[in-house]
Known about the structure:
Blueprint: E1 5-9, E2 47-50, E3 53-57, E4 65-72, E5 81-87, E6 94-96, E7 102-105, E8 116-125, E9 136-143, E10 157-162, E11 170-173, E12 191-196, E13 201-203, E14 209-212, E15 224-232, E16 242-252, E17 260-261, E18 265-271, E19 279-286, E20 296-302, E21 309-313, E22 319-324, E23 335-344, E24 356-366, E25 373-374, E26 378-384, E27 392-395, E28 398-399, E29 408-412, E30 422-424, E31 430-433, E32 444-453, E33 460-470, E34 484-488, E35 506-510, E36 516-520, E37 532-540, E38 548-560, E39 566-568, H1 582-610, E40 623-624, H2 644-647, H3 682-694, E41 703-704, H4 742-759
Parallel strand pairs: 3-9, 10-16, 18-24, 26-33, 34-38, 40-41
Antiparallel strand pairs: 1-4, 2-3, 4-7, 5-8, 6-7, 8-9, 11-14, 12-15, 13-14, 15-16, 17-19, 19-22, 20-23, 21-22, 23-24, 25-28, 27-31, 29-32, 30-31, 32-33, 35-36, 37-38, 38-39
Pfam family, one: Cadherin
Domain Cadherin: 72-152, 153-261, 262-374, 375-479, 509-574
GO biological process, one term: cell morphogenesis
Amino acid sequence: CSQMLKIWCFYLLFGPQNWCSLQTASAMIPRNRPSEGQRILSRAKRGWVWNQMFVLEEFSGPDPILVGRLHTDLDMGNKNIKYVLAGEGAGTIFAINERTGDIHAMKRLDREEKAEYTLTAQVIDRDTDKPLEPPSEFIIKVQDINDNPPQFIEGPYKGSVPEMSQVGTSVTRVTATDADDPVYGNSARLVYSILEGQPYFSIDQTTAIIRVALAGMDREMREEYLVVIQAKDMGGHMGGLSGTTTVTVTLTDINDNPPKFSKGSYEFTIPEDLGIGKPGGRVKANDRDIGENAKSAYSIIGGDERDVFEIVTDAQTQEGILRLKKPLDFESKKSYNLTVVATNIRADSITGGPYMDQATVKIIIEDADEPPVFTKSAYLFDVHENAAINTVIGAVAARDQDATHSQVRYFIDRHTDLERQFNINVDDGKITLAKPLDRETDMWHNITVTATEVRNHSQISRAIVAIKVLDINDNAPEFATEYEAFLCENGKPGQVRGHESDPPVASPSISRDNSISVLAKHDSFRRQKQETYLLPIVVTDDGEPPMSSTNTLTIRVCGCSRDGTVQSCNVEAFVLPIGLSMGALIAILACIILLLVIVVLFVTLRRHKNEPLIIKDDEDVRENIIRYDDEGGGEEDTEAFDIATLQNPDGINGYLPRKDIKPDLQFMPRQGQHSGPNGVDVDEFINVRLHEADNDPTAPPYDSIQIYGYEGRGSIAGSLSSLETASSDSDQNYDYLREWGPRFRRLGELYSVGESDKET
């Protein structure tokens, strides 16, 4: 309190009759250094106060509760004094009587929400609101009471423990929390206990660890337990608050139970013709365990000496499936007594194991109609190729092994005997020859024979019959191919390259591999004399009866090198220069042929280019002018055009073919008309040519202008041509051409050079 402020009285929780007043010294008491003389010495049941601090227990209720009373020395009954309150909760949680200074708590105080409040009290003038004293600060501390029960925040819980666990085995741990002050009193001191779950489980009252309390708990008897756990504060004393939770404890499985067959013996009936791998029956060994602990493996430990059956485990149903490994035979064995064992796959470290159980399985074989059975799966016979028709080659046999012993019929599968070479007796299975055999064509014949029951035609069995054709001496020996031997001219005797020869020129010798060697008897063989020798050779075998044939061996006389290498076997090659090989001659011949082909192509293209074209005008076929743009070779060119025909028409008596087109038909030439005594008649010459053109069937069907460059005779002016003139170029001087300019200067030089050449 301030210097003038007095703490006059404290109101305690149980009413105004339990309060007292104490007037304190007017001097300021330091807040942080309280002493016994400075401390309020009065205490009631549930309220305390120290200098500048009020201590108040948390409460709950609808009525306001007096926290304390403030008083100042200035309050002498003066009504102008006014007490005001400020700070945390002022006006909402705490209220002050402005005339008396009483402080009340207007709402419920909860330490778990707020443990203390700091406020300021001051005295002011009621009329002017001016402070009469400086403000004084004080604290209201909320004291904890046990008003919160323990709570299991993470509950309900689940735990597990293996079955048959020992006493004291930990299962799980639970945890409870208390919102009360853990420092003040025992409001937050918890003690754990089991309300439900004895005598199977126990709990440590301090650590809250749940443990096994009963030995030998069997999952197969009871798998799940519900345990109720209580947590109580105040150290478990009377009056403390408590909370509960549940723990579901599950016993996990261990392999503590053996597999057990549902019955000690089983009996199955299966048909004789059951397929390999097909199931014949199922057995089941039950196991009270679960999961991997319940899985079992089945095996046959007795009664299956022939190893006919096997047993496997069905992964889905955990059944043992009996399956067939080998074919059954009712006639040889009609039943089986098997001993089957079921064994746990997994062993447990707690119980040991593994566990097993066994049962007896009787299998009865039911007779089935089976196809006949051949005495052999394959038969091998042989026969000579000259065997007569209907000769018995061999016999097959099959029988029905069923109890009925049905008769059997035999047939040949004609897909294996397309040529119907053999027959078979349907009753006794004898195979006979139907057509003649030829070993040289087919040495082996593989056929399939079927046996069918008379009573049931669907029961068919098959066997393979291999027939070997034996050889007889019915073929004369002959050369394997047409042999050709080579003999070097001027060669030494005994040198022949080949395999066969002829006695007049060689002597043969026979080797062990039926081949012969041919040796020359002399060295006087010449290609010019005889190029080829045909040597007949008689070949005889050692068969019975002996067979023989005459074969011809061709021996060619060839030119050879010094080391005996054959170079040429043709007579024409004899005149070739020595030293040229056959490869070189072939290369030269190829080059010549290539050059000839090029020349022929060039001439053909040349003729095609010089062949005059006849331009056809589709719009007007009456006239057509043919233009020739070929440039002549000059006066010295005497081969470009035969002008003798025009100069001497007296010698033209035969037929001259047209050169502007290619005639399709050839006609006999007509006898021309002779000229008169003067020797030249141009008019008659032109008329003859006109007549020939009009009557020529190869001429175009329209008019054609034919130009004749003929120079007439007897002209007063004389000839304009220099073809028959007596003068020559050497009589003329071409120096004037040089004066005509650069274009003619080169021409003058050429003519001058020509004159000088002639002089030299």
